[in-house]
Amino acid sequence: MNNFIKPLLALKTKSGYSIFSVLIVVVFSVWGISDALKAEVTYAADGNSQTIKSSNDTVGDLLEDLEIDVTKEDLLSHEVDEILEDGMKIEHIKAKEITVIIDGDEKTYHSTADNVETFFKEENLDFSKEDDVSQAPSTKVKEGLVINVTKAFEVPVNYAGEKETVWTTGGSVEEILSEHDFEVKAADKVKPAKEEQIEAGSSIKVTEVTEKTVTEKESINFKTKEKEDDKLEKGTEKVVQKGKKGSLEKTYNIVLENGKEVEKTEIDKKVLSEAKEEVLAIGTKVTPKETENNKSTSEPSGGQTKTMEATAYTAECTGCSGITATGINLSSNPNKKVVAVDPSVIPLGSKVWVSGYGEAIAGDTGGDIKGNRIDLHFPNKQAAYSFGRQAVTVKVIN
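Given the sequence above, the corresponding structure tokens read:
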């Protein structure tokens, strides 16, 4: 404008001043008309706004003129090809860059969301309450925001025999057990070790170890002392002094794992009462009848002779009836000489002679007495035990 006016100022004549005045009027009139044709527009972004008079045709032309970039992720209140109008307010929300790192995998987003919760919904990012998310849902979204997410995983826990599953984002065994309110005592067995780090696919086992002290009473068996008695008939016994069991008290320390006993250690013992010895008299008196029977130990003439394996038995045994297969009552006749035979070898009722035993009746049978086997009856256990097992000569008399 100044460059335009300067030449006119050089005019000194009256007519020159008239021309100058006319030109001034024309110039300002044109300027005023041009200014009146501009649209007054308000542009608002990032909490700031400015009012602009623009002769641009469209919103896009205005933004380009103002050197404002609009990305596809931005929110713009008007289309870029919309015609500018006087009084128009253009609101521009610029997308902010957000970095999300999930279990080490990084991805960049651009969003106009106001807070983290809205951003997650827009991007369909769904996390459970067990996941570790570094930003709260209400956190405002700012340019360059970084959100770290560690996904939770399941860990099976066997605690004292009870099984359950917990969720965790990792940590040591001790930390996870404490986090889920598992009480672990110093004596308990923990596998893996408390300091071991837990990863997906791991499991935890806690064996509860407890100890208790118990006191138990036990009996003390009495001993039996035998003594010979020449007043008692040989082969008989008599209890002279009845034995009596004693008792003692033992204290044990018991270790239990998950309530089951795994170790028992004696830590104390106290005798409450001593056992009383039993005295048993063993008869040694020989009766005339026995002497007569002993005469029968010499081998008779005639008859069929066999060599057989002999064992001994007595009617004085627990559960024994004392009645033989042929009906002989050995309980009433403890000194009667009876042998058990295999009837297919020696017929029942036969009279037999056995070396070292004498004459006897084949009056009994036995489950183990088969073939060349014979079982000799004795009046008591001691005599039977003394005989044991031996080879004998057997002669069937009739």
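The chain has a mean pLDDT of 87. Try to locate this feature in the token string yourself.
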